[in-house]
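Long-time lurker. I teach an intro course on protein structure, and each term I like to show students one example going from raw sequence to a predicted 3D structure in token notation. This year I'd like something fresh instead of my usual example. Would anyone be willing to generate the tokens for the chain below so I can use it in lecture? Attribution to the forum is fine with me.
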Amino acid sequence: MLTAVVLCGCSTPYQLENDYIYRQDWGRGDVKWKLVWEDEFEEEDLDTLKWSKVPPAGSSFGRYMSTDEDCFRLYDGKLFLRGIINKTETKDQRRYHTGGIQSKGKFAFQYGRVEVRARIEKAKGAWPAIWMLSELKKYGDYPNNGEIDIMQYVNFKDHIWQSVHSHNVLRSDRATDDEFYARVPADVARYNVYALEWYPDRLEFYLNGKNTFTYKKKEGALPSEWPYDQPFHLLINQQLGGYWAGAVNSDHLPANFVIDWVRVYQ
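-- Reply from a regular --
Happy to contribute to a lecture. Here you go:
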């Protein structure tokens, strides 16, 4: 299949591929970031030109994912991704439902800055996350293409996690090495801006404008160590249970992951 690439002029900082993949036009020197994609969630319904609802999956995070409308609320310029008790067990026998959105097939980018302003309602067993996966699977199946976790949070912790995953991290004893992640103190009940700046040679993580963690590409790194040379898409989701968050306390539900806005710059 031929790939259509539009070479943009100096007014745009990217090359547009297949009408939805924004590849950074690198070598732009000290040119300032330019907003290339955003969602302020000001509409009454989810913008399906930008997002799809995350479907159920066999993985730990996807166990309770659902397209149930009760898992998604748009109100006062905010998107509420909800973890709820399933009230439709005659059709779906899972105990809980959770809401998540992804830009897969609708927006992806390679290099740039992504910001998400959000707040978290704490609950036992809740596992909200802002993260990224590869769009084109350049190196095969997961985890060969890597994963970028802009923010993960569980239960009632006083910190978030920001991390990277690759074949080398997940398939070796280096997975416990703090070189690949940071625990960052955070008051998640307030609105925070979680951000990532992605360059060809490093990933820089931020909380409210402060650099918290930098993951650098090592000289001569193989794709198993650095698969971050390809377009990625966004995922934002509430999750319940799973190997990390543990048992869910139903008395704490519904639990909302509230998204104010999402912005991507290049």
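Some talking points for your students: Residues 128 and 238 are 4 Å apart (CA to CA). Confidence is low (pLDDT under 50) at residues 1-9.
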